[in-house]
Amino acid sequence: MTTTLDPSKTKSELEIEQWLHMYRGMVMIRLFEEQVNDLYTRALMPGLAHLYIGEEAVAVGVCESLNADDYITSTHRGHGHCLAKGAALDRMFAELLGKEAGYCKGKGGSMHIADPDTGNLGANAIVAGSAGIATGAALSAKRLKTSQVSVCFFGDGALGQGLLYEVMNMASLWKLPVIYVCENNLYNEYTHNSETAAGDMAERARAFGVQAETVDGQDVRAVYQAAKAIVDRTRAGQGPAFLLCNTYRFTGHHVGDISREYYRSKQEEHKWKTERDPIKLFADWLVSQKVVDRSRLDQIQAEVKSEVDKAVQFAIAAPYPTPDKVDQDIYA
Amino acid sequence: MPETRELTLGEAVREAIAEEMRRDSRVFICGEDIAEAGTVFKVLTGLVEEFGTDRVLDTPISEAGFTGIGVGAAMTGFRPIVDIMFGDFVTLTMDQMVNQAAKVHYMSGGKWKVPMVMRATLGATRRSAAQHSQSLHAWFCHVPGLKVVLPSTPYDAKGLMKTAVRDDNPVIFFEDKMMYKLKGPVPADDYTIPFGVADVKRVGTDITIVATSSMVQVALGAAKLLEEYDISAEVIDPRTLWPLDEKTLIESAKKTSRVIVVDEGYGRYGVTAEIASVIAEGAFFDLEAPVKRIGAMHVPIPFSPPLEDATVPTEQSVFEVAKALCG
Question: Chain B residue with minimal CA distance to A106?
Fold first, then answer.
């Protein structure tokens, strides 16, 4: 089923505060990723950069429903999840540039941000690779009776890996507090998922007795509302859930993926960018509902821009790790 | 004076796990048919009665899945032991062991830890054919971030398992299924054996036989045969392949000047190759002959008894190689 918002909901002060928090969160991810694109194309960033632009409502809507000590696992396209869960901009940029001040001392990079302080068990470059870790963390939470939940973010590409189904089965058998969030951005790298995923995606979860819902991943309020209901249920001991968020990757698989016409048209991209941009949709709604006026949103943009600029300057100036650090942290 | 009994290797493993589970509530074990069934080799019989099904957790036949769950549980407060019924099935866990467990600590800049033990079997000659007989421990030695343990006696099995459970890193613990009935003295008290410390199982002067797991018994048998030819063989068991006690191996090689390395894994790109290289680099000018290696034949393990028996090192084959080397 697809979750829809209740239009009669009153706009309490708290709600407005939360909406602006979510707006700020999405803008932060967008500006962070635009900065990553810039760093990458200026050859200041080594490696690969998989941008989250276009999918911001998923990370923000889901993480808004979580507590600080809840767990997440993330993916190669994970900057958005890490930021939405509370990562600091400066240490994120520093990690992406391979600097000692980064979250992983420069040893993980863009695809492997991890941060115990924000419950981030780590971003994973094996597409379903973190499904076991997220489920294991849920087992810990249940056994230790901490009432934490564990959220496993992954893309539609991960639906092709068997690990996901093995752990979903055990999560259902053992009623573990884990939520599998599938970001369906339509493409497994350079291949449309009509070529890779048979049947109905959410039905795969239902086959294990896992409660599954589908939501418009461009509508941050819808994502939040669906996630909140699922998280509350899961936290209360009702077992695992699957949230399918339909979304779109506005840019290439990675920054270097420039010529994309062989797998998707410019018209398709244009349509999503102009009609389905989650930040624009949310901004328009906030203004049309007279929650805030446009200038308040512009002010938030400017504040975040300044934070991002400061953070990137910090990262550029930060020192690299010295080569003697290379064989540290292999064993605990 | 603490009591010392004769236990089988299987009983020693069970005692170590039970003692660790009593000592530390964070320790649990999960795997296929481990609770009421007590594993196919009955190594864990009785554990579920004492600790319950929450801590002796039967899983579906999903090796990758429950290994991954072990990694996640290890990162978040538990010290899981993941039980892989046959060592051949480690292939199903490789992403979770190699890309996840081994790398979590390093990739997170040292912030997350994976205090997990995987226990698995190795060893041929049970007439179980090519998918239930392999010795794949060398694969794990190749990956930084993992520790690899191969006990050869009940005493070592108990002490090393306790160390494995207390280690803050992913440890893979290989038990030769042909040794579960092997008996030996095991103290009833709590003791641990540090990783990276080889054990001289027999002192000798003419030739060093480095052997692992059940090959230690093979080497000791060969040493006895060599006695009749007045050849004194020293038998050394590294006990952990990573970390590896290079010093003890090199010192013994320097003393005896002749070395054979015996391991039941494949020789090609295997444990014997690595240890031979360590010795060649560390003791080259003291050696009278090139280091000899004896491993499993480079064939899939066959079913038919005469074929299978031809694939593994034996007392006789080790004896013959040693005698020729000393001739």
Answer: B109
Helix (H, G, I), strand (E, B) or coil at B283: helix
Phi, psi of B97 (to 5 degrees): -80, -45
Q: Which residues pair with residue B207 across a beta bridge?
A: B233
Order across the sheet with B233-237: list the strands: B199-202, B233-237, B207-211, B259-266, B292-296
Q: Whole-angstrom Cα distance, residue B147 to residue B44? A: 23
Residue B292, min C-alpha distance to chain A (Å): 32
Q: Please indicate if any CB of chain B lies within 8 Å of the CB of A240.
A: no
**Residue A235 phi, psi dihedral angles, 5° rounding:** -65, -30
* Domains of chain B, first to last: 4-187 (3.40.50.970), 199-326 (3.40.50.920)
Minimal Cβ distance to A132: which of B71, B106, B108: B71
| CATH of region A13-318 | 3.40.50.970
Percent of chain A with pLDDT over 90: 96
Q: Pick the residue from chain B with its C-alpha nearest to A327.
A: B106
ipTM of predicted complex: 0.96
Contacts of B109 in chain A (CB under 8 A): 102-108, 114, 329
Domain map of chain A by residue range? 13-318
**pLDDT, tens digit (0-9, with 9 covering 90-100), for A153-168:** 999 999 999 999 999 9
Please check whether residue B233 is in contact with residue B247, taking contact to mean a CB–CB distance below 8 angstroms: no
What is the reported pLDDT for A1?
40
What torsion do the CA atoms of A248, A128, B55, A241 make, to the nearest 10 degrees? 20
Tell me if chain B has a CB within 8 Å of the CB of A92: no
What per-residue confidence (pLDDT) applies to A7?
58
For the entire predicted model, the pTM comes to 0.96
Quick one: how many helices (H) and strands (E) in chain A? 11, 8
